[in-house]
Structure formats: C-alpha cells, structure tokens
Amino acid sequence: MSDGASPRRLALRPLWVVMSLVAVVLIFWPTFRDLLAGTTASDEHTHRIFVIPIFIVAVWSLRSELAALPIRTCWFGLVGLVGAGMMWLAGNLTFIRLFNELAVIAMVPFVVMAIFGYRWVWALIFPLFFLLFVIPVG
C-alpha cells in the first residue's frame, strides 16, 4: 500500500489500466484498425501481427518484478495523454498518418504512468518501446 490506498483499491488498478486502454482503442478505433488490419500476405509489414502477442508475453514475464514496485499515480501521465491526443488531432487535421499512429501507441505508456506511476513505465520500457514496431515505416 504505497500510496495509502486500501488493498482492495490496489487490486483494482490492473482493471483500471485495461479499461483505460480499451477506452483509448475504442475512441481512436479508426487509427487502430488501420494500424493493425493493414497486414496482408503481400505486405512488407507482416511482422506487425506478432508485435501485440510478443508485447503481452513480455509484460507477463515481468509480472513478479512489477508486483514488487510501488503503485503511485503520476499526473504527468495525464499531461502526456493530452499531448498525445493533440498529436493525434494534428495528424488527423493534416492527414499525416504517422502522427496518428505514433500518438495512439504513445498513449499506452501514458495510461500506465497515470495509473501506476513512472517506475512501472521504467520497468516496462522494453515492451512499451517494442510496440513501436507495429507502426509501418517506409
């Protein structure tokens, strides 16, 4: 109970992260659809279908390390979410697809930071950066 919350409230934090990420996916569904559904057999970016499962396995493998970390909300995560939302809006208004895709991927660590704190983001740095491979470049 690092932030003075009851054990029951701390146990609900992973549910908050999942619900927040589902909300981000639903709000920005067209961008996620374009990002993940664009892989065909003739596409040069077919590796993207493996990024999400590898991300999930990498996070799962860090579960014992994450359990030992303190849980402290970080308001900078909300500031980052607003910044990523503005980047998505800029990409949407200027028709620059790369801005949209970078913004929705950047929202994932900011959600984790807002709910669990910066130490969790630091512990998950490899899986979170690995998510960038889902963006087709070139």
List keywords for this structure.
138 residues; mainly alpha; globular
Care to describe what's here?
With 138 residues, the protein is an all-alpha fold. It contains nine helices and no strands. The chain has helices spanning 7-11, 13-27, 29-36, 48-61, 63-67, 75-94, 97-116, 118-123, 125-130. The longest helix has 20 residues, at 75-94. It is globular, with a radius of gyration of 16 Å. The mean pLDDT is 85.
Judged by helices, strands and strand pairing, the structural class is: mainly alpha
Helix and strand string, N-terminal first? HHHHHHHHH
Low-confidence stretches: none
Q: How many distinct beta strands? A: 0
**How widely separated are the two ends?**
46 Å
Percent helix among the residues?
over 70%
